């Protein structure tokens, strides 16, 4: 028996491009490249550390900063990734737990107006909170001083009773005189502290 050779390749019959199809394909590829939607030029790692266009760490950081400043990510919409997240979540249910998945990193836009508005609002809130805190502290000090003054007024008559040689009517007159002026009460109690020591 004679062996027969297979004329078709292993992957099945390959498509043969005609010259017209070939020209149309080249036109489409050129159009995609010129439109800016084909981002084959910015593939990270296309030139390894020893390639012709190799960049160091600082050069890479400078390039990233320049891209951010030029607004390379202005058309970024954070809601576009919601569909991808839902699709990935349903696919993750089918993956065995021994496999790990790599999450894609989202690049943030530093010039997002919502982020700027929130940042500005937080700064204003922080400033208002600091000034309110100072005002509240001053009010608390004032209320404490008033509470101390009220306690002194309540103890005034008991302290006047300790002074020997005064009649009740004299004690009432002295108490009335002192109560009418807070600095007099403060002075009276400082004298008592000095005399007591």
UniProtKB/TrEMBL annotation:
Domain of life the protein comes from: Eukaryota
Biased composition (Polar residues): 87-101
Region ranges (Disordered): 87-110
Protein's recorded name: Myb/SANT-like domain-containing protein
Organism: Cannabis sativa
């Amino acid at each position: 028996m004679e062996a027969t050779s297979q004329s078709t390749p292993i992957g099945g019959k390959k498509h043969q491009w005609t010259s017209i199809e070939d020209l149309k394909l080249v036109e489409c590829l050129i159009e995609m490249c010129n439109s800016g939607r084909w981002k084959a030029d910015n593939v990270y790692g296309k030139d390894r550390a020893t390639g012709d266009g190799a960049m160091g760490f600082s050069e890479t950081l400078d390039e990233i900063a320049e891209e951010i400043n030029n607004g390379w990510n202005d058309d970024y919409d954070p809601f576009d990734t919601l569909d991808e997240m839902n699709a990935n979540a349903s696919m993750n249910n089918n993956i065995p737990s021994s496999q790990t998945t790599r999450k894609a990193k989202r690049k943030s836009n530093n010039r997002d107006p919502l982020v700027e508005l929130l940042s500005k609002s937080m700064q204003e809130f922080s400033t208002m909170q600091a000034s309110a805190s100072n005002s509240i502290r001053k009010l608390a000090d004032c209320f404490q001083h008033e509470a101390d003054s009220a306690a002194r007024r309540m103890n005034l008559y008991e302290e006047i009773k300790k002074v020997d040689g005064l009649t009740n009517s004299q004690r009432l007159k002295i108490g009335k005189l002192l109560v009418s002026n807070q600095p007099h009460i403060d002075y009276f109690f400082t004298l008592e502290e000095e005399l007591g020591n």
